[in-house]
Specification:
Blueprint: H1 2-11, H2 25-42, E1 47-50, H3 58-62, E2 71-77, H4 83-100, E3 104-108, H5 114-118, E4 125-133, H6 147-150, E5 151-154, H7 159-168, E6 180-185, E7 188-193, H8 199-214, E8 220-221
Length: about 220
């Protein structure tokens, strides 16, 4: 599974235009099983929703050209400390899992109709939704910073740290700002993220990517 997820990191790109076809019963079953696993493991309330009405708001349609979005994950949970980061981490897992199974995704934080979506997960905090489906294209790589712009290792840099940072640079972040910094010493790694409305979600996404690239057995977060 880990190797498949690593390959999915390189293949996954943001896709904002979908062909509008429904997910197959097999695809829905696979995705819902993954959602159930994550909800149970992290005490979340993520839901896979299919609806005839698109959740994309006016900005998403007019500025970003979002089309054909009728299936999506709602990243939701009971509100508590660190929940944005946890939902970002789980959402990253779902994006890569969907990619592994031949589907495309689009993170939507400020481009969805929140009032409409809230009806599917009443009483829960929603941090974002992720459109999932069959893209009209496979998307394109986002503009990326260089490794030394976002990381520093004290002493001789191990291969696992280098691999982790390269994986983190593949992570989707708000406005592609990549406003994170990863530092390491020995087997200890620290991740900081510039404060902002999406920083918690982005931090969870970057953590998930770094862990996949570096191998969780090689380090510990501090």
């Amino acid at each position: 599974m880990t190797e498949q997820m690593k390959r999915a990191m390189n293949a996954r790109h943001t896709v904002r235009q979908f062909d509008g076809t429904s997910l197959s019963e097999s695809e829905k079953s696979i995705l819902r099983s993954r959602v159930d696993e994550l909800n149970k493991e992290y005490d979340l309330s993520i839901a896979l929703i299919e609806s005839e009405k698109t959740p994309v708001n006016f900005m998403g349609k007019t500025l970003l050209g979002g089309k054909g979005v009728y299936s999506y994950f709602v990243l939701a949970a009971d509100d508590r400390d660190g929940i944005d980061e946890m939902l970002g981490y789980a959402g990253s897992d779902l994006c890569l899992y969907a990619q592994m199974n031949g589907l495309n995704t689009w993170w939507m934080a400020g481009t969805f109709n929140r009032k409409y979506v809230e009806g599917f997960v009443s009483g829960k905090k929603i941090v974002s939704i992720i459109a999932v489906g069959h893209g009209k294209t496979q998307g394109a790589p986002h503009k990326s910073k260089e490794k030394d712009q976002v990381s520093k290792f004290e002493g001789e840099e191990p291969e696992w740290f280098k691999n982790g940072v390269e994986a983190a640079l593949l992570a989707p972040t708000a406005l592609n700002k990549q406003a994170f910094n990863i530092t390491g010493k020995g087997n200890k790694v620290s991740l900081t993220y510039k404060s902002g409305p999406m920083s918690g979600i982005d931090k969870g996404i970057v953590k998930h990517h770094f862990e996949l690239g570096a191998g969780k057995e090689n380090f510990e977060w501090v």
